[in-house]
Amino acid sequence: MSAQVQPVEVFDLVIFGGTGDLALRKLLPALFHRFADGQIAPGSRVIGIARDALDDGDYRERVRAALERSLTGEAHAAADINRFLELVAYRALDATRDAGWSDLSALFAGGSERVRVFYLATGADVFIPICERLRALGLTQGKVRVVIEKPIGSDLRTAAAITDAVGRSFAERQTFRIDHYLGKETVQNLLALRFGNALFEPLWRAEHIDHVQITVAETIGVERRAAYYAGAGALRDMVQNHLLQLLCMVAMEPPASLEPDAVRDEKLKVLRALRPIDAHNADQFSVRGQYRAGASENGPVPGYLEESGRGDAHTDTFVALKAEVANWRWAGVPFYLRTGKRLAQRVSEIVIAFRAIPHSIFASVAGPIAPNKLVLRLQPDEGVKLWLMIKYPGPGGLRLRRVPLDMSFAQAFGVRNSDAYERLLMDVVRGNPTLFMRRDEVEAAWQWIDPILAAWTASDDLPKAYTAGTWGPSAAVALIERDGRTWHEDED
Ligand code: BG6
After folding, report:
1. Domains of the chain, with CATH numbers?
2. Cα-to-centroid distance, 181 and ligand 1 (Å)
3. E strands within 17-152?
4. Catalytic site residue from 33, 180, 211, 242
5. Inter-residue contact 485 to 478 (CB < 8 Å)
6. 208 catalytically annotated
7. What is the position in ligand 1's atom list of the atom closest to the CA of 181?
8. Contact (Cβ atoms closer than 8 angstroms) between residue 384 and residue 192
9. What is the pLDDT of residues 336-346, one digit of tens each?
10. Ligand 1 interacting residues, C-beta cut-off 6 A
């Protein structure tokens, strides 16, 4: 079955940070795929911007090399890549200097009515000068949007300052704050499962759900991002945005429609209902860790502090939290969150653990009756498993087993797993902000995160050590096990 493709309007997309990792590894391959599938109309333009003195030809060669790296294993005609590269151009400029801006502005002379997107794939330190220039050059009016990458600030105060400054150049409806987790197939499917089936919603509440787990585990280390990461840590890098957004999608009330504000209003209510974790209870509800030397799939790896020589002993490369959404639907249901670098396996999943049956009619020889679980896996292989008790087939008495109804999307539909950026970039061009964070959401997320950071900063403790290649510090296991529960492990 092939995916249905609806072409988007002709557009100009300007990528600030055009030679950076995000642009070359994610944005340009995503655009290429949309182009190869026929979604991007001829005549559209993609303009990379960076300080390097390159011409269009040099940049196209860099993009070609990046595409070839990212498309390994996918059959793509060189002709497709060549046709895509015809859309690609480059302009050199330094966001904080005068040179180069008139060249950029000349690209838009004539003030056409095309959609124009400015993607700020740069550090937040240059968001403000870029936005101010674009406004001064008169480039912010019309069908114009700006895309801002996380991290938006490092706490509530700095996030608000960035938003205010960007807001002087772009209206809120023009501002797309991207959280690429919201573009992942399984996250979309969470909406489809919850609100496209009558089956789940009546059970989606404290009466029937024992707890929820959200895990985003990575095997990579901090690698080339040491300078950024030392100031950020996992709580700011992953929890403030990705994990909280996933939590919102699980916990929100049914929105009246998929209109952008209908969905975002519901997510905001969840963020505002999170029970605070602060100096009084941070020891009980939060665990932070930092990896020491250990092993990854490819052999021995150094610890965080040795990896780059620029690490900070206080930086959290792992976080586990026990959160609670204090409202009628969820009161008393723990949401266990964990994320970390250099963990045992790359896996991101949401586990909805249902309550145990109230009474068993089976003899003990039938075996234990494990509660149902709905597991939504975001990566590596996107899909959904619903764990159910069934009778083990054949004679030999009534023996029970928990087995999954298993649906891997790529297998079930025979389609390529598309990258989240593909969907989100097309949504920006279409001007649909449903899957982007509104200002108040970003700020509400910081409002919950700030007291956790403050509690950690005030404490004399350093993050707890864990060996690279394991599931994090033992305190993270204790966080859930002292409640009589365990982190989910796939039983296949
Ligand atoms: C980014 C974080 O937002 O998400 C990175 O800054 C992290 O530290 C990445 O590695 C994970 O994204 P994905 O899609 O590979 O799970």
Report:
1. 11-149 (3.40.50.720), 182-419+436-481 (3.30.360.10)
2. 9
3. 45-50, 88-92, 115-120, 144-148
4. 242
5. no
6. no
7. 14
8. no
9. 999 999 999 99
10. 180, 218, 237, 348
